[in-house]
Amino acid sequence: MELLETIKSRRSIRAYKPDQVPREILTELLEVARWAPSGSNTQPWEFIVLAGETLGELNRAMIERLHSGKMKPEPDEDMPFSFPTGLYKERSAKFYKKVLAVIKMQEWYEKSMSFFDAPAAIIIVTDKSAPQPWWLFDIGLISQTIALTAQNYGLGTCMVGHPAAYPKEVRTVLNIPESKRIVVGIAIGYPDWDHPLNSLRTEREPVEKLVTWRGMAEEEEKK
């Protein structure tokens, strides 16, 4: 798949076939993704790949957390969680309007807490000694690289924030030491294109609304 088409066609997959993803393919994918850039080549990422009963155990723990009603985030990183406002709220509202036309909100919460029933998942962690705040950018870079590389193998992905919001459950099930910071989860598997959740399409703002040009007019005048 051509790079530009890969970037433009990537979308978050929220329904998967039950087919297991071979370990060899996940290894190849991460072999490629590890070439993502990082500040001063610190490479502040580590991966925990889940499948089978281990993934099922984590999903059950996360669903139990949801049903307990104790949903206040407790992230490893001391940062406030806030809801979108203004323009960001408008964009988010458009998305959830499409979601609620497909499934009920309770089902949505349960799916998002359990990696959308994907057959595999990747938890990205970083050591707490990683330089602040650059590790956050670096994890974003490698997460996108994983998502794009996955398409080459016919796989779909979805970034999942709940492992970072509720790290206690993740740390307990996976025996992750306190020295590691849980940053993000990635659902990964073969997309179920017949599921209505995968028919959702989101819009992107046009470039004209996003870019402020400085100095380009002068360069054009010189031509």
Question: Brief overview, please?
Answer:
With 223 residues, this protein is of the alpha+beta class.
Descriptive overview:
The model has no long low-confidence stretch (mean pLDDT 94). Helix 3 packs antiparallel against helix 8. It contains 10 helices and 4 strands. It is of the alpha+beta class. The chain has one domain (3-222): 3-Layer(aba) Sandwich (NADH Oxidase), CATH 3.40.109.10. The longest helix is centred in the middle third of the chain and has 18 residues, at 134-151. A 4-stranded antiparallel sheet has the order 1-2-4-3, sandwiched between helices. It has helices at 3-9, 23-33, 52-68, 86-100, 105-113, 134-151, 162-165, 167-174, 207-210, 216-222; strands at residues 46-51, 120-127, 156-160, 180-189. 27% of the residues are buried. The chain is globular, with a radius of gyration of 19 Å.
